[in-house]
């Protein structure tokens, strides 16, 4: 009887242990690298959606390697104990360097990934990311979002539709509707990278930077948000109130206001619609100065046509402080082309404020069949049309007729008046001389008029000399064709310079900048050797 009671007690105990083991989950001993339960207030077993789970409630903590997961409650699936679903006040830490919080999360310990949803906030020592949902890979230490995100650091606020963040390299990659905001500038782009450590922005596609000192555009390159230094490529440009400077490569220091462009450079003055193209450009914002070289060509509208001007260097200077005029300088070896006007000179200066152009050092202008030469030429423009031209010192106008004769007028100074781009009248002021060949029917020479008078008035029709009037009684003579000698056909100083007349091709031709002349070094003067002294000290 006593042995029967003992056997019944043993069987009952074993049965009770079996039932209890089926109702209360047993936590297997975790292996190295597996998800490990660190603590919970309540541990229950049950079935959820047909799967056996362990439900942990209250102050739940899990650990895997250097990662900790905290939540109000967690479902741990019995058939795949490395997979967790966390609910309420979810927080995930990795190596005390990255913290992520949200309302809900799934954690896959096998793949070592987590997906957090609901008011997600991710932080590391350099930035804070907020987004509706986030996927984090603990192996590669990268986070990604697809529902829009906002990143804030001490200097900038960044937004985008899609994004990834590599916590090892501190590099964000943004896509779609990218925006960057700071106190001094705003950036918009479609694709962009940003390093939260170096604070450098990397562009990958059309990007606009709007700032207080001007705007920038590029399709590739970098921008340092701390130093405000840009290195751009592909169709890049700087846009200020005065200029638009662009090129295939563009460097701009926003703090210093200095820009440098290379390859297919374009500098456009916005005030007077003057464009300069070349291969190298420099810009100084505070000085209001810009320089283009490397076969530069200027373009502007004159007389309802495009005027082109080239030189080794084109230099623009805005009115700043004591400077009252905006100036454009071209030097040396200047060439000018317009359909009805061509020219050359060593240098040209253009006062854009007063619309006055100076041609210096052996200037020559050609207008249809006429050639104008003097020591200095000053051109006055009105409404982008030539209004008046002053020719100072050794002024000389010559024109070729249908028989290859050269009508010539010279004087100390001249003033030419234009109407609708054509010469209509020229006043000769001092030391006037003229040669004029009389033709019959543009095919027969009837003689040559030669006149000397201090002051003259020349009148033109369709850019051809029609009449000469003398304000002082002239010393005039008419020479018939059979009496003309070769020496009679030229005034002193005449020089027909048709071979120097630029074409449009000449203006755009690549040029090698002239090198400064190097003065030859003078050979050192050798002093004559003295005679040797004799034994008595005499030479």
From TrEMBL:
Record-linked InterPro entries: LptD (IPR050218), OstA-like_N (IPR005653)
Record's keyword annotation contains Transport: no
Native species: Pontibacter locisalis
Keywords, comma-separated and alphabetical: Cell outer membrane, Membrane, Signal
Signal sequence, start to end: 1-21
Protein name: OstA-like protein
Gene3D superfamilies per the UniProt record, alphabetical: Lipopolysaccharide (LPS) transport protein A like domain
Spans annotated as Disordered: 505-539
A Pfam cross-reference name: OstA_2
Biased composition (Basic residues): 518-539
PANTHER family: LPS-ASSEMBLY PROTEIN, LPS-ASSEMBLY PROTEIN LPTD
Domain Organic solvent tolerance-like N-terminal span(s) in chain numbering: 34-189
